[in-house]
Amino acid sequence: MKRKRIYIAYTGGTIGMKKSSQGYVPAAGFLTETVKNSAEFNRDEMPLFDIEEYCPLIDSSDMSPAHWQMIADDIKAKYHDYDGFVVLHGTDTMAYTASALSFMFENLTKPVIITGSQIPLSQLRSDGQVNLLNAMYLAANYPIAEVSLFFNNQLFRGNRATKIHADGFNAFDSPNLPPLAKAGINIRLLEGQLSPYIDNDLQVSRITPQAIAVLHLYPGISADVVSSIINDDIKALILLSFGVGNAPQNHEFLELLANANERGIIVVNLTQCLQGQVNMGGYATGNALLNVGVISGYDMTLEACLSKLHYLLSKNASPQSIRHLMQDNLRGELSR
Ligand SMILES: NC(=O)C[C@H](N)C(=O)O
């Protein structure tokens, strides 16, 4: 059987870093050489691959919407030459990039898997080899036509994944959707649907930076603190509320939200809880938010909500249509 071809877009992250006097920093050339010369990556059962090393390689804390665009455009340019795509990325903002890419790609019929590691390949006990090897193997043999994230033997839907561990190998979880696949002795598909290899016209939407505020509520938060965040420059506000979407009944606070809504600011309610979804009909404290025009983010991760807002605001749609689409399931990012 003809060997599949995988394109690896290497953006940076711990996986290819080396020690410096200031801590780990990306090291140009190192990962590409290591992988190209490794017997394991070149076994007959593995797909053929090319690695494109981005310049400069970055720690993912430096990622921005411009980088999301660069990655998406790069994959589009190579789309017809490869069977699948792996994006090597730092873990810190990996779930943001995975979410953003999931919205930017339309008509995706090939797998795009984003991965990285917690310990660099250059160090003992690195999780980098197993993450990259499995991501490549899955992209070639279990082509799930969506943007996914592989980490610690689990493949997650990209816009459902979130970083849950700062220093464990189990750095990611998908609290509101089972993994798409699990890699044990055998690879088990759970939620993932294998894609038929039909060539379709891949579309990439443009994303531009957007002024979006994120407000984490806490008991006793003052209206002054809230009003300092809701200024005229923001286009959207993500409210991280209590439980199923509840907030203080404070009149001034609700007034501020009502005014923001009237000015066209999109206010989305997400729960601070890791699992479960917003239901503003559950309690009077949630219903008050609904009454001032706050919309539900259901069970979206913060990463999915933030990148979905970027995606929709970049289209310059009306606030009304953005409010509507935010509550629609566009790429499997929410359950309702
Ligand atoms: N494990 C990692 O990749 C963390 C690193 N700071 C990054 O996100 O680039």
From TrEMBL:
Span of domain L-asparaginase N-terminal: 5-189
Query: Which residue numbers delimit the Asparaginase/glutaminase C-terminal domain?
Result: 212-326
From the UniProt record, list the reaction(s) this protein catalyses.
L-asparagine + H2O = L-aspartate + NH4(+)
- Tell me where in or outside the cell this protein is found: Cytoplasm
Q: What is its EC number?
A: 3.5.1.1
A Pfam family matched in the record: Asparaginase
Q: Where is the active site?
A: T14, T14 (o-isoaspartyl threonine intermediate), T91
User: Which GO BP terms sit in this record?
Assistant: aspartate family amino acid metabolic process
Could you say which enzyme class this protein belongs to? hydrolase
Its chief place of residence is cytoplasm
| Keywords associated with the record | Cytoplasm, Hydrolase
Residues the entry annotates as binding substrate: S60, T91, D92
Record GO terms (molecular function): asparaginase activity
Which GO cellular component terms, listed alphabetically, does the Swiss-Prot or TrEMBL entry include? cytosol
Q: What family does the Swiss-Prot or TrEMBL record give for this protein? A: Belongs to the asparaginase 1 family.
Under the heading PANTHER family, the entry gives: 60 KDA LYSOPHOSPHOLIPASE (PTHR11707:SF28), L-ASPARAGINASE (PTHR11707)
Describe the protein's quaternary organization and the partners it interacts with.
Answer: Homotetramer.
Q: What is this protein called?
A: L-asparaginase 1
Organism, scientific name:
Pseudoalteromonas ruthenica
